[in-house]
């Protein structure tokens, strides 16, 4: 049979010439070094060159424009735009002032630091950022992260366990870059609940409270405190204003034109509550108040930066995690609003803008600033046109830092707790979670892991669980890829998975298999080889039972569709060699169809192309099947 | 344009009907649960059922046959086969006895344990194993592993660093399962050099020697010892017999019929050297000798097994690593010889056989036994027919344990060192390393990392480096997949990567891209989306420069070939949605070609199929291109 086929190949060859010719005469793929150089060139150098080429009028100016988008849109800025931005900026400030104080509280900092953070970073961002709606300032999740991680600070020299934890979480910092959407949904929901529980301290006016963030510690801490005497007045003030804010939001949702009511509600609550406390002297009856807020603008804090000392490693790790979470949040928020308005957010520019905002912030007594979802939504509803609304907000906060701080002395802390509490439901995305459940069960598992991890263990454990499960999935799909049997869709040249297309028909005597892995490598080569051999065995055994007589001719050709395999390593080459040998010993021909560039190149290098024979390598599965069917028909005719 | 296209779709639809129909009416893919159940069924249950079905005469007997292959081939065993096996077995024993003593020495055990290990495990293996040539017994690399890891044993309670090391290497045990061929080549070569250096102790007759295995420690230890007085007689005996053994091997290689000369040379050396020492009383002149070897068969060692105590964790880890290395070696050696003889080794049976051999061994004073490459080669050259040669060898060793042990009292240790040294070059596979270098530079890096790691750090570091680099490669290829532009090969329906096939032509107004990743997921979805958008931008800018006029019509359709994408997660769905939206805002149509089963199912679930519209999902790239080219021609005609 084999010999007959050979002779027919010689006859049939001229007709097939062009196709095989294309495959065999293709150019060499680039080497690893060429690829690396190419990568650097396209990703680092060419961007600048492109920009230079385009507007060659003034290279410095065009470079500046690429770094500071304000130079582009600033030229077209008009008065009626400013009217809208002014309105949006003032609304934003009224929400921002109480939230900033509350978040600073959550982060374990004095209230003025929250306000500082709403001044410098938004100003820098407005010059460098590419989003038009993003409202910059402190946010709840990052504040929580800071407080939970800073409270863990230990001296690594004296405490080896803490030292190990640093190493462990420094790795985490790297992995967090791969937080999936599902992980983020779970993480945010868990963080919202944890933040909410933290607010019980302010709402009940408790003095003793745990520094841990997990549910069990917080609830037991609350439970213990309730045995001590507590001040119900705090709770009355806090919960009544919480109800007021929630009612305002309900109103705003029912009528889109009243968006300013929920936006102003927190500031109104602060003003009312402060006046009530001031007029009734409630601070003497156990109502906790904010007390001193240092008046005045941001002070420089360069002299407070420390770049050595025992905590450097840990601080670096905290910095990395906060930076990544902050950036992820900012880009996610910015992108979702950019999509609504139909423009595209430049991830690299956002990273630059957020980076410089926070560097400038760290030199001027700010803590981590990023894009807040709730305030960005308010900014958007208030009709902001450009990032000028951020500038307006920053200036308003700056003025209030000078003017309002003495007034804020009497602000009850319970009101801050209720403002934070009112912002939390926005972090819990139930419909998003349901959507994920419907789409992908494994992603939902990631979500649940992140949620429960944050809730019952710690922020870091939650993130680690989510990232771990996500990567396990990638690795599993690499080490256990599928090998599908293909069939021809009748009257076409299309070959499809016979499970996906039950109407696809197999050709007798041929087995067509597709390897669905981008790498045929050490981790899966043996598995794939065994899978292929098992499929062959199954075909032979299956047909055995029915037609014992035809046994010798059951399977003559196995066609391997390699169109999805992007690369081989030596283990992959060895597996293919073994497969070829094993089939050859059973008088079965191994045929390779549509090998990719690099794969074909490696087959040549490994001389496998010679062993399998060039005539048995085809451009497409259809071509291969046609060839063998024709060869068989001719040989039958001859018999 | 878009509206026109719509109307043409309605006209063109009937002709396309069958193809889209196939795609849209395909069955639902199995759920995760169904897949899991199916996996269990095919991998755990069906095997037994199949076997039951086939030979239903006696299920117990057929089960026994599947566990003990000896019941199958034993029936056909003939006298002339036994003659060959006897000859091979005796040759094997003559090589095995001195090697076993030497390897026991290397593992830090008394010499009789090496001999015990050559008795029980081969007997068990001969009943359960599926290889015909594999020679079972102690091997060099596993002996080295044992000695290097056991000497590290520390009390985990008092020493936290050691405890961390356990955790670290327990993880390693899992990863070692994925040792690639390249890693193994590097590891073996490194181990050979390390083992060779360890033999310097015996060759020079040194008393003080390091227990570490890295090159630096060993060489400094040798250097220090040379300052002390040492016995040159040891070196004279050792090196002269090493030369004798190497000469014998050279002879054996030149004439294949003299294969027994190198096989007998070690035993002859032992006998000669022992006689010389015995007759000249050389042991009084500083020649180190083996001294007492306990005579008698294997003693039961059940009472010596300890399943608790402070070292349990570490011992478990050592056990796991040794078991995996041993099994990997046995299967690699067995498979390479099985391929020569043209039969197939059953990996599962091998695992069972090696497992039971070593369990039985651990109950009868044996240490780890596996398939030795050098002895298997001798067995093969000696013309063994079945695993009976192992039985012959085991019985011969058993007899010699009773008879020879008193004689071996005077065997110089230097001779054992030279026997081990002579076996080492077989572990260094230079041509294999060259082959890997030619095939795959990254694999070669893995090889070098394993080699240098073993040589300069420790066995564990070497393995960890190799596995780490290998997995980094898989993960990198997952997070940075390629997106290729496709072009049509003239006069065919074949679309190929335009880099691979430079003659492939693009169709004006269409951009065809292929995603070469099996998962469109959190780790690469943003990257792929950005890549696609950049490709589109490049096309538009590129054509911009040349023909400023046609700008509006540069790109109307982007065809995404998803034939290699096996799965989506929610991040992938979001990325596709964003891509669709972004393109739609530029009046460009996103077209999806040849989506796979699960991918299409998820697109349906996510309602993305409705957004992209069913008319824009095609079975193949060719179909999609034809459709849009036809639509455009018709609309041009109408203009």
TrEMBL record, chains A, B:
<keyword id="KW-0813">Transport</keyword>
<feature type="transmembrane region" description="Helical">
    <location>
        <begin position="124"/>
        <end position="146"/>
    </location>
</feature>
<feature type="domain" description="STAS">
    <location>
        <begin position="520"/>
        <end position="628"/>
    </location>
</feature>
<keyword id="KW-1133">Transmembrane helix</keyword>
<dbReference type="InterPro" id="IPR011547">
    <property type="entry name" value="SLC26A/SulP_dom"/>
</dbReference>
<dbReference type="Pfam" id="PF00916">
    <property type="entry name" value="Sulfate_transp"/>
</dbReference>
<feature type="transmembrane region" description="Helical">
    <location>
        <begin position="380"/>
        <end position="400"/>
    </location>
</feature>
<dbReference type="InterPro" id="IPR002645">
    <property type="entry name" value="STAS_dom"/>
</dbReference>
<keyword id="KW-0472">Membrane</keyword>
<dbReference type="Pfam" id="PF01740">
    <property type="entry name" value="STAS"/>
</dbReference>
<dbReference type="InterPro" id="IPR018045">
    <property type="entry name" value="S04_transporter_CS"/>
</dbReference>
<keyword id="KW-0764">Sulfate transport</keyword>
<feature type="transmembrane region" description="Helical">
    <location>
        <begin position="166"/>
        <end position="197"/>
    </location>
</feature>
<dbReference type="GO" id="GO:0022857">
    <property type="term" value="F:transmembrane transporter activity"/>
</dbReference>
<feature type="transmembrane region" description="Helical">
    <location>
        <begin position="444"/>
        <end position="471"/>
    </location>
</feature>
<feature type="transmembrane region" description="Helical">
    <location>
        <begin position="355"/>
        <end position="374"/>
    </location>
</feature>
<keyword id="KW-0812">Transmembrane</keyword>
<dbReference type="GO" id="GO:0055085">
    <property type="term" value="P:transmembrane transport"/>
</dbReference>
<dbReference type="GO" id="GO:0008271">
    <property type="term" value="F:secondary active sulfate transmembrane transporter activity"/>
</dbReference>
<dbReference type="GO" id="GO:0015293">
    <property type="term" value="F:symporter activity"/>
</dbReference>
<feature type="transmembrane region" description="Helical">
    <location>
        <begin position="86"/>
        <end position="104"/>
    </location>
</feature>
<dbReference type="GO" id="GO:0005886">
    <property type="term" value="C:plasma membrane"/>
</dbReference>
<dbReference type="InterPro" id="IPR001902">
    <property type="entry name" value="SLC26A/SulP_fam"/>
</dbReference>
<protein>
    <recommendedName>
        <fullName>STAS domain-containing protein</fullName>
    </recommendedName>
</protein>
<feature type="transmembrane region" description="Helical">
    <location>
        <begin position="233"/>
        <end position="251"/>
    </location>
</feature>
<feature type="transmembrane region" description="Helical">
    <location>
        <begin position="258"/>
        <end position="279"/>
    </location>
</feature>
<keyword id="KW-0769">Symport</keyword>
<feature type="transmembrane region" description="Helical">
    <location>
        <begin position="315"/>
        <end position="334"/>
    </location>
</feature>
<dbReference type="InterPro" id="IPR036513">
    <property type="entry name" value="STAS_dom_sf"/>
</dbReference>
């Amino acid at each position: 049979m084999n010999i007959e086929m050979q002779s027919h190949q010689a006859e049939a060859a001229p007709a097939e010439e062009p196709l095989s010719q294309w495959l065999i005469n293709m150019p060499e793929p680039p080497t690893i070094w060429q690829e690396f150089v190419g990568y650097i060139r396209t990703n680092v150098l060419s961007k600048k060159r492109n920009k230079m080429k385009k507007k060659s009028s003034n290279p410095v100016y065009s470079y500046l424009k690429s770094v500071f988008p304000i130079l582009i849109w600033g030229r077209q800025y008009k008065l009626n735009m400013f009217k809208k931005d002014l309105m949006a900026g003032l609304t934003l400030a009224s929400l921002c002032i109480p939230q900033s104080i509350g978040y600073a509280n959550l982060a374990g900092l004095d209230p003025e630091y929250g306000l500082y953070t709403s001044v410098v970073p938004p100003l820098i961002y407005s010059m460098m950022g590419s989003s038009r709606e993003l409202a910059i300032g402190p946010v709840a999740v990052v504040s929580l992260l800071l407080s939970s991680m800073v409270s863990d600070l230990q001296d690594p020299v004296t405490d080896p366990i803490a030292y190990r934890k640093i190493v462990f979480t420094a790795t985490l910092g790297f992995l967090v870059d791969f937080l999936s959407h599902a992980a983020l949904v779970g993480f945010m929901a868990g963080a919202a609940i944890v933040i909410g529980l933290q607010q019980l301290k302010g709402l009940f006016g408790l003095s003793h409270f745990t520094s841990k963030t997990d549910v069990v510690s917080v609830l037991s801490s609350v439970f213990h405190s309730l045995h001590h005497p507590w001040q119900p007045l705090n709770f009355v003030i806090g919960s009544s204003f919480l109800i007021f804010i929630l009612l305002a939001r309900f109103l705003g949702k029912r009528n889109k034109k009243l968006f300013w009511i929920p936006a102003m509600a927190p500031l109104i609550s602060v003003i009312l509550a402060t006046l009530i406390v001031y007029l009734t002297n409630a601070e003497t009856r156990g109502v906790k108040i904010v007390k001193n807020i240092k008046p005045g603008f941001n002070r420089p804090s360069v002299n407070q930066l420390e770049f050595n000392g025992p905590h450097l490693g840990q601080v670096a790790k905290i910095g990395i995690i906060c930076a990544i979470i902050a950036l992820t949040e900012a880009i996610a928020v910015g992108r979702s609003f950019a999509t609504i308005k139909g423009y595209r957010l430049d991830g690299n520019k956002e990273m630059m803008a957020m980076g410089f905002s926070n560097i400038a912030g760290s030199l001027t007594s700010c803590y981590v600033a990023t894009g807040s979802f709730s305030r960005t939504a308010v900014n958007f509803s208030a009709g902001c046109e450009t990032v000028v609304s951020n500038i307006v907000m920053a200036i308003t906060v700056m003025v209030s830092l000078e003017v309002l701080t003495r007034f804020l002395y009497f602000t009850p802390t319970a009101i801050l707790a209720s403002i934070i509490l009112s912002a939390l439901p926005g972090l819990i995305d139930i419909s998003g979670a349901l959507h994920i459940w419907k789409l992908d069960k494994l992603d939902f598992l990631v979500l649940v892991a992140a949620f429960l991890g944050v809730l019952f263990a710690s922020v870091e454990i939650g993130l680690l669980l989510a990232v771990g499960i996500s990567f396990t999935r990638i690795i599993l799909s690499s080490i256990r890829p599928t090998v599908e049997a293909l069939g021809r869709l009748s009257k076409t040249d299309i070959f499809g998975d016979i499970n996906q297309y039950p109407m696809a028909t197999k050709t007798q005597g041929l087995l067509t298999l597709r390897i669905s892995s981008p790498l045929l490598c050490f981790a899966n080569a043996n598995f794939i080889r065994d899978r292929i051999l098992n499929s062959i065995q199954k075909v032979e055994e299956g047909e055995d039972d029915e037609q014992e007589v035809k046994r010798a001719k059951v399977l003559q050709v196995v066609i391997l569709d390699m169109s999805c395999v992007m690369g081989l390593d030596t283990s992959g080459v060895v597996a293919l060699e073994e497969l070829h040998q094993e089939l050859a010993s059973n008088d079965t021909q191994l045929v390779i169809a549509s090998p990719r560039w690099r794969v074909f190149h490696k087959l040549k290098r490994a001389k496998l192309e010679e062993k399998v024979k060039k005539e048995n390598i085809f451009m497409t599965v259809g071509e291969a099947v046609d060839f063998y069917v024709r060869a068989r028909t001719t040989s039958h005719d001859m018999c």
